[in-house]
Design brief:
2 copies of one chain form a homodimer. The first copy, chain A, is α/β, with parallel strands linked by helices. Chain A is 34% helix and 23% strand. A 9-stranded mixed sheet of chain A has the order 1-2-3-5-4-6-7-8-9, sandwiched between helices. In chain A, strand 6 (140-149), helix 4 (151-162) and strand 7 (170-173) form a beta-alpha-beta unit. The A-B interface holds A 9-13, 16, 64-65, 67, 69-70, 225, 227, 256, 258-260, 262-265, 267-268 and B 9-13, 16, 64-65, 67, 69-70, 225, 227, 256, 258-260, 262-265, 267-268, 271. Chains A, B: One of its GO terms (molecular function) is S-formylglutathione hydrolase activity.
């Protein structure tokens, strides 16, 4: 597994670096970004927060706009931001060129239907291949947490709930909470997973949370703006709330008055999320 | 003077808003961004920090990438980010379509040569028309400071030095410190101002600083990364340092090891600049 460093920029005493590598899982070259806090140069292995971005994003959006590096540098957290789908000429995108499916919109699942099944395996990439790479090449421990925004909030919740014990904590901004029951999710799931809605349940955070045994869900924080244009039709945090109640899980769901779906919202509350993860990762 | 609000996003308890208006000075429609901290809703008039961006930028780069809102919200500073040149079909750009002159590259001066003189009057726009608009439409006092990056660092220094008493403090990241003596500046000045280099001196921060009477320069902070690709050929902070010595001015010039020319550098040190301005503006 070789990594090509494509950029390196100092940030808050640490380093923002981007790498290209060949992903066996996805069958294409991928780019990811890593923020290494200053403590990474002192030898000790540091815990890692994985950040999953939303529709249309790449590894760059979070690193440029969330303002997470300041506190990550203080807390000694590594942050890893993968891309949002497989990429490259061999990777099929939305047949109509839409932005809510395919390239930039991999939904962090393993597709079972053709022509998607060959490359669209973002779940296995994010949960297995990428952490193996990170832990082999950087001063990263196997203590992991995961967070994300919108489609990436769905991804973070699903990765954590499908893989008990793998993440110490999970959080999300404006997640697609119940993709089986919203237009973005129905479009993506029907293509990636086929028409059998029973198979969709394995990739729906609200379904998974309701079925997770009480006491086995990692600490769970969700922020949602109440002026988010996608709130009612696509995001549906009330489904997550009901699932938490049903499953007997503690969910901190904060409805933030006046905030929208943008990175201005994420930046405003990223510190709380970093502290949430740092506490679970033993950094505070 | 009417303002059309084109977006409004909550950020750290305050608001990031963008406006379009017709500029009489520039003879075209312009867009600017304003960050209003939470204190702006409490009635008192707040001081304003003007931020001037670099080549190719618009009002958006700083607001999206610098991470300034967190501390501005705490300190009660309004931040205003104008565009970097006049815009529109009637505004001539670089004849060769280059990115370092014309559209997105107005150099914050008043052009005297055709075809630039009609629209390229960014100095008067930034120093006079825009503050008048801001102070008429927002809870903004007439206490002003100014900062910027690269071409905008040059702009901030020149606006402050040409207009004694107008700004309480000035700062810059990686400014073009001596534009008369670097390729970017020579290209822009020869076109905007003509071939008589004596006229260029009025728009060169190092010349202006050397000629400013001791004691009449506002508090002056400059940060410069030592891995900035433009450092030697274009930025030349040593010229500013010599000018400060010659003029008897106190200049805090910090060479930051490992940092480049990007917003990752700006974000890493924006807090120090905000505190520098807040101190001069009576907010700390």
């Amino acid at each position: 597994m070789s990594l090509d460093n494509i950029s390196c920029q100092k940030s808050f005493g640490g380093w923002h670096k981007r790498y290209r590598h060949h992903s066996k899982v996805l069958g294409c070259d991928m780019v990811f970004a890593v923020y290494l806090p200053p403590q990474a140069e002192q030898g000790a292995k540091l815990p890692v927060l994985y950040w999953l971005s939303g529709l249309t994003c790449t590894d760059e959006n979070f690193m440029q706009k969330a303002g997470a590096q300041r506190l990550a540098a203080e807390l000694g957290l590594i942050i890893v931001a993968p891309d949002t789908s497989p990429r490259g000429e061999q990777v099929p995108g939305d047949p109509d060129g839409a932005w809510d499916f395919g390239l930039g919109a991999g939904f962090y699942l393993n597709a079972t239907q053709q022509p998607w099944a060959q490359h669209y395996r973002m779940h296995d990439y994010v949960v297995e291949e990428l952490p193996a790479l990170i832990e082999a090449h950087f001063p990263a421990s196997d203590q992991r947490s995961i967070s994300g925004h919108s489609m990436g909030g769905h991804g973070a919740l699903v990765c954590a709930l499908r893989n008990p014990g793998r993440y110490r904590s999970v959080s999300a901004f404006s997640p697609i909470s119940n993709p089986m029951d919203c237009p973005w999710g129905e479009k993506a799931f029907s293509r990636f997973l086929g028409d059998d809605r029973a198979r969709w349940r394995e990739w729906d955070a609200s379904v998974l949370l309701a079925e997770t045994p009480a006491g086995s869900c990692p600490p769970l924080l969700v922020d949602q703006g109440d002026r988010d244009d996608f709130l009612e039709k696509q995001l549906k945090p009330e489904a997550l709330e009901q699932a938490a109640r049903k499953g007997g899980h503690e969910l901190t769901l904060r409805l933030q008055p006046g905030y929208d779906h943008s990175y201005y919202f994420i930046a405003s509350f990223i510190d709380t999320h970093l502290r949430h993860h740092a506490a679970a990762l033993g950094r505070v």
